[in-house]
């Protein structure tokens, strides 16, 4: 059980390290037996190596997250936050477009993706994140400019 | 599987019907085997009869919900929406919540989770309390809400 304020600090610190492209720092917030799903409904993945690769792609895209107000469950483990984010269309955008999640822009190298999602984390022993889920669908993605 | 616009409408429709105070109209959105967790961490309510009592109680407490921007998922089943929920009776409490609902193939809500903690709850309109004073004020007011359950509204 982790108190509410500590869980809220954890999820905001996650955004801070994401914005700093600090992949090692992000991984340090996670337990060894991590599972994650981004987006929810696309299939659950496991392990730190997969998570590292995932964060490296987001960092390479210059992701910028603006977190809203976090809320915590009364189960001692969950914390959630609504996020508005942007990132470069490259390198992740073409993968989104291939899946039909997004229409490819005319100038991929100069475009940014706009993104609304809700982050949900489940934290466990030692205050480490055991599970990350990101809620977003096609209608939560756009191309800026 | 519902399209994303339908999923998002469902979340907003729930808030609209709650605000209208029509218990049966709210219940129409849910399946008979609904699992309803409010707050997540308390034992879930299972089935429509248990949910009816909870919704009726919320409406007796003069609940008002202001949903923010809903987001969905890639499986056509789930939607998450940050929402400000205020109850005005027996005392004013404001909850900052994130609701997550899951729809079945029948287009009805089968699972609903309201995530909110003691630190997401504000008492009245006065100055923001902190620490133990805040914790005590919130838990005392939640206890008042529970005590008022089933008794006529004092308003």
From TrEMBL, chain A:
InterPro entries: NTF2-like_dom_sf, SnoaL-like. Gene3D superfamilies: 3.10.450.50. It comes from the Bacteria. Residues 15-131 form the SnoaL-like domain. This is Nuclear transport factor 2 family protein.
Automatic annotation (TrEMBL), chain B:
This is SnoaL-like domain-containing protein. Residues 13-109 form the SnoaL-like domain. Coiled coil: none annotated. InterPro entries: NTF2-like_dom_sf, SnoaL-like.
């Amino acid at each position: 059980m982790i108190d509410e304020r500590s869980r809220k600090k954890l999820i905001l610190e996650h955004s801070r390290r994401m914005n700093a492209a600090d992949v090692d720092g992000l991984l340090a917030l996670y337990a060894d037996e991590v599972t994650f799903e981004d987006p929810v409904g696309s299939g659950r993945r496991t392990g730190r190596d997969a998570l590292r690769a995932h964060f490296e792609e987001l960092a390479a895209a210059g992701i910028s997250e603006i977190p809203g107000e976090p809320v915590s469950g009364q189960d001692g483990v969950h914390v959630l936050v609504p996020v508005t984010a942007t990132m470069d269309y490259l390198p992740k955008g073409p993968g989104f477009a291939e899946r039909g999640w997004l229409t490819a822009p005319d100038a991929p190298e100069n475009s940014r993706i706009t993104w609304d999602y809700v982050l949900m984390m489940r934290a466990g022993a030692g205050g480490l994140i055991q599970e990350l889920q990101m809620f977003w669908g096609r209608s939560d993605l756009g191309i800026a400019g | 599987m519902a399209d994303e616009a339908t999923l998002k409408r469902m979340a907003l429709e729930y808030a609209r019907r709650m605000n209208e105070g029509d218990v049966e109209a709210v219940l129409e959105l849910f399946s008979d085997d609904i699992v309803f967790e409010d707050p997540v961490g308390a034992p879930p309510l299972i089935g429509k009869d248990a949910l009816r009592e909870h919704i009726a109680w919320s409406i007796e407490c003069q609940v008002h919900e202001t949903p923010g921007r809903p987001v969905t998922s890639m499986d056509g089943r789930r939607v998450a929406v940050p929402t400000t929920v205020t109850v005005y009776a027996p005392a004013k409490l404001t909850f900052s919540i994130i609701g997550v609902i899951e729809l079945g193939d029948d287009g009805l809500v089968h699972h609903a989770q309201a995530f909110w903690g003691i630190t997401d709850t504000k008492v009245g309109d006065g100055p923001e309390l902190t620490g133990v004073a805040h914790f005590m004020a919130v838990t005392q007011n939640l206890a008042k809400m529970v005590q008022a359950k089933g008794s006529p509204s004092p308003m």
